[in-house]
Amino acid sequence: MADPVFFQFSTATVIALLVLFYGGTFFMSTFVNEKDESVDGFMVSSGKVGFGISAASMTATWIWAASFYGAAISGYNYGLSGPIHYGFWGALMILFIYPFGLRFRALAPNAHTLAEIMHARHGSGSQLILAISNLFGSVISLMVNFTAAGALVSVLSPLSFQAGVLIAGIGVLSYTLWSGFRASILTDFAQVVAMMSIAVIIIPWVYFSAGGSEALTAGFEIITEEQADFFSTTAILEQGAPFFVAVLAYAIGNQTIAQRLFAVRQDLIKPTFITATLGYGSIVIGLGMLGLMALMLGIAPHAGDVNNIIPQMASAYLPPIMIALFFILVIGSLSSTADSDLSALAAIMMTDIYGRNLSKGNPSPRKMLMLGRLTMIVATMAGLILASFSLDILVMLVFVGALWGAIVFPVIASCYWTRVTNQAFIWAVVGGLVMFTVVRFEMLTLGGIVGGFFELIAAVGGGVVLGLMAFGFFGRIVGFAVAAIGGVVCAVYFTGFLREYTVLLGSLTAYGASTIICVALSLIGKEEFDFNVINDRVTSFDDDAALAAVRAVDEKL
């Protein structure tokens, strides 16, 4: 089959679509703009957001530009199981976070960031590790989303890549700057409703335009046995397992997720995250089907680039009006994540850099708001500059994923185990990241004893991942049992085998090494922490009396 030609909008049409979208979101944000803005309102809407807005915002934030392209590429590369391995594991991680979210809110009902809780638990060192990793990750996320906007605009219109990047950056900043997190979640609600409505129309439209079940049935003759196998080992090891491990780290390490945990009403955390799990899974698995359909129709990616699969399918099987809706669908998804990144970056700078460190216990609300808005402007500029360089996104995403993978166990253990110390936290993260770097970039030859050594650490990491999931839902005894059994099974299965899959080996090594170091150093120490102290140390920035009490405690330390 010949490569389809990309549909092209005129310059006037694509600009009109972008102005319509960003103008509409800006207009919506004016409804939540408050003359006397509060610090807590700007960062987490004072922790009083209801069910519908929260669930929609969580869904929209989790669906970013990479979800569109990644799910379709997974379907195209791995066949029947590809969309499941992308969408299902991502959805499961939204579900995974809520038991720990309940714990975070119980410890610190007035928190703004997860790093703020680590500050109350351990001090500045652990807080800054978590905060800096979030700053780094959110700027990269901004870059990825702006890059996707530029690529889409350049493919579907005469406008250049740089013009698409610039329009997206200015558009997102325009409606997020004044109302911060409130504008982000309100526009998320509208964006996710639009995304679901459009996806429900577009995916079946492509399916029937491409020939329906008859065409897809014929496609089974041109795909490989692995692609036709719903339980493909290759798909699990190359896509499902690495993605599962990566999104687990993302769920704990990323401030955009934590910010929504601290914003939703405490009694609505569970239904919010269950609903978001279902919403994310249904949309992303559906988008992955576009890649599967391309595979079974024998469509070759334009110029050999699998990122072209989605626009190729839209161009080949949708009429112009539906391509315009598809265009809005993608712009909406990347904008919802980009505005979440801006809000997250502002909260980290306001809380973790200024509020809990630079202000020396005397934060000024006016300075905090100004710092938050300046952070959004600087972060947008950084994202635009990085996007224009077309840097190797995958390498940086791998680093961020590994950093967050090394953070997962120390963060969770710090919220449940009284003996985890600041030193144990810091050295666990550093050790996990170093070990990951050695494995992922093969700085040592992964053969013989060396390969076996890292496979053993990765087996510990596998047990930790399974154990943490079981612990969140079923408690300590089940968690320990699952971790122990999972670790033994992984050790048997990984030995002499996992070294061939360095992405998965590196990610699990980060988990395993950080856990071993954290547990060992915590057991050596004899400290016992009182968790009740956290609530006293993490206060609202709008409560002068509470801040004065914290300041008095700090002065005595």
Explain the overall architecture.
With 557 residues, the chain is mainly α. 78% of the residues lie in helices and 0% in strands. The protein is built from 24 helices and no strands. It starts with 10 loop residues before the first helix and ends with a helix. The model has no long low-confidence stretch (mean pLDDT 84).
Care to count the β-strands?
0
**Roughly what is the average pLDDT, rounded to an integer?**
84
Calculate Rg over CA atoms: 23 Å
Share of helical residues: over 70%
Largest sheet: none
- Helices and strands, in order, run as HHHHHHHHHHHHHHHHHHHHHHHH
* Estimated structural class: mainly alpha
Low-confidence stretches: none
Q: What global shape is seen?
A: globular
Task: Tell me the distance between the termini.
Answer: 72 Å
Count of runs of 4 or more consecutive helical residues: 24
Query: What portion of the residues fall into strands of 2 or more residues?
Result: under 5%
What's this, in brief?
This protein is mostly helical and 557 residues long. It is built from 24 helices and no strands. It starts with 10 loop residues before the first helix and ends with a helix.
List strands and helices in order, with pairings:
Elements (H helix, E strand, L loop, with lengths): L10 H19 L9 H6 L6 H12 L2 H14 L3 H26 L6 H8 L2 H33 L4 H16 L4 H29 L2 H8 L5 H4 L4 H21 L1 H9 L5 H28 L12 H9 L2 H39 L6 H24 L4 H22 L7 H19 L7 H27 L1 H19 L7 H23 L7 H6 L6 H13 L1
